[in-house]
Design brief:
Length: 345
């Protein structure tokens, strides 16, 4: 039975607001709620240390988690629809592997060739990592878009994307073999993902880019609904399959590339959130699923970031570990509940 989507969307929006505030309140340093609100609205008289923690650390992390979670969830939904594959996700086409390969060249190859890894050179190193990840992921995406114009079946394109990922991981393995222990450790830490990596002026650039890409993806709702019916039926309705596939893959690929470049390869969200939303909203209509997926992805990313920075932990836990450990049981319970309802009916 189809549910009324509006109450659920309002509830998810409220959860995002609550989780965003909790991201500002909770952490290794306890800051009162009144002080946080006062700092946000530019009030004076608060501790300078508290102001720096809130404005320079917690607000950027919360904004990054919100926008990255929404972008990854939408890209996962687009991938699953265009490939008609429930296991499709942001990493399925090798785009995340391309970003990892770019970072591997910066972290591993530079240390072996030059003697000093670019990743250890402060702000310049961080900028180099971001540029390398964007170049690597966009290069793979351009290859995928080119191949998508040459092959007919989505399954063939999916297999090619997986093979590209294997090749990228193989090259990364060779680079690791010839690298020193410190460089390998730096690369592994990057691969664990983090919403805290984006700070300062970078966070506003990241948020602006995602604020443009996410609404643009909403323009593909009609195309995705037609693709959901099957390629033959969509073609009979006048949809250009090749062009539509390029647009969907390109939109999802750019979002994955940007998120991976700034935050590292964030796992689980893009794969699981679309399934979670289909079960909660009980619909396959992308007019409901797209905004629902964006909101759910943002809320889940904010919740995982809270857990990663909970008091009692020294520093922050790897975000990839938290997303899988927290999200997987939730999705499993929802899917099992859906299965029981189907059997009962």
């Amino acid at each position: 039975m189809k549910r009324n989507p509006i109450p659920l969307i309002l509830l998810m929006t409220m959860l995002i607001v609550v989780f965003f505030l909790l991201n500002l309140l909770l952490g290794t340093v306890n800051i009162p709620f009144v002080s946080v609100i006062n700092i946000l609205f530019g009030g004076e008289g608060e501790s300078e240390i508290w102001s720096n923690i809130v404005m320079k650390s917690r607000v950027p992390q919360a904004l990054t988690a919100l926008t990255a979670g929404a972008g990854l969830a939408i890209s996962g939904l687009q991938m699953q629809t265009v490939f008609h594959n429930p296991l499709a996700g942001p990493s399925v086409l090798g785009i995340s592997s391309g970003a990892s390969l770019g970072v591997a060249f910066v972290v591993l190859a530079s240390g072996s060739i030059v003697g000093v890894a670019l990743s250890s050179t402060g702000y310049v190193g961080e900028l180099a990592l971001t540029i390398a990840a964007i170049v690597g992921s966009l290069a793979v995406m351009a290859l995928i878009v080119y191949v998508s114009q040459k092959v007919k079946g989505s399954v063939t394109l999916l297999i090619i994307g997986v093979m590209i990922g294997y090749v990228a991981n193989a090259i990364i393995g060779v680079l690791k073999y010839f690298s020193v222990e410190e460089d390998i450790r730096a690369y592994v830490i990057w691969g664990l993902g983090s919403f805290a990596r984006v700070s300062g002026d970078q966070v506003w650039l990241f948020v602006i880019i995602m604020a443009v890409l996410i609404p643009m993806s909403m323009l593909l709702i009609k195309t995705l609904n037609l693709l959901l019916l099957g390629e033959q039926y969509a073609r009979n309705l006048g949809l250009n399959i090749k062009t539509s596939r390029v647009w969907v893959i390109g939109c999802a690929g750019v979002m994955i590339a940007i998120v991976t470049a700034y935050c590292g390869p964030i796992m689980f969200l893009g794969l699981a959130v679309p399934h979670l939303c289909r079960s909660i909203w009980r619909t396959s209509d992308h007019r409901v699923l797209m905004p629902a997926t964006a909101l759910t992805g943002a809320a889940l990313a904010l919740a995982c970031n809270i857990i990663a920075r909970m008091p009692g932990f020294e520093g922050a836990l790897p975000i990839n570990s938290v997303t899988a450990l927290v999200g997987a049981p939730i999705v499993a319970m929802v899917l099992f509940g859906k299965r029981k309802n189907e059997v009962a009916e």
